[in-house]
Design goal:
0% of the residues lie in helices and 54% in strands. The protein has 115 residues and is mostly beta strands. The strands form two sheets. Strands 2, 4, 5, 6, 9, 10 and 11 form a seven-stranded mixed sheet that branches. It has a four-stranded antiparallel sheet with strand order 1-3-8-7, with no helix packed on it.
Length: 115
């Protein structure tokens, strides 16, 4: 099993920034990719960003140029990814979920952006 602990959500005004983190522990492997999805009320879960073990990144169209995902693999069995979110917009309001590929999900952290 892999355990994921997310942190960093909150309430911010539009135009401001937030940083989310997700720490993976348990039966982790260095080759696994990790990423972020989000789900707004009444909407389907949406891909936000992903990062491979080698540091390659991929972003959803809605966040390109505003969000940056990074990864820390320095601990032998614990892996942490962070996502710096800048120029936040009200439409970024959602519960953000960390994913340890292929199918371990975090509990989610709420991000609310007020206009």
């Amino acid at each position: 099993q892999v355990q994921l602990v997310e942190s960093g959500g909150g309430l911010v005004q539009a135009g401001n920034s937030l940083r989310l983190s997700c720490a993976a522990s348990g039966r982790t492997v260095s080759s696994a990719g990790m990423g972020w999805f989000r789900q707004a009320p009444g909407k389907e879960r949406e891909f936000v960003a992903a990062i491979t073990s080698g540091g390659s990144t991929l972003y959803g169209d809605a966040v390109k140029g505003r969000f940056t995902v990074t990864r820390d693999n320095t601990k032998s069995t614990n892996y942490t990814i962070s996502m710096q979110m800048t120029d936040l917009k009200p439409e970024d309001t959602a519960v953000y979920y960390c994913l340890y590929y292929p199918n371990y999900w975090g509990q989610g952290t709420q991000v609310t952006v007020s206009s």
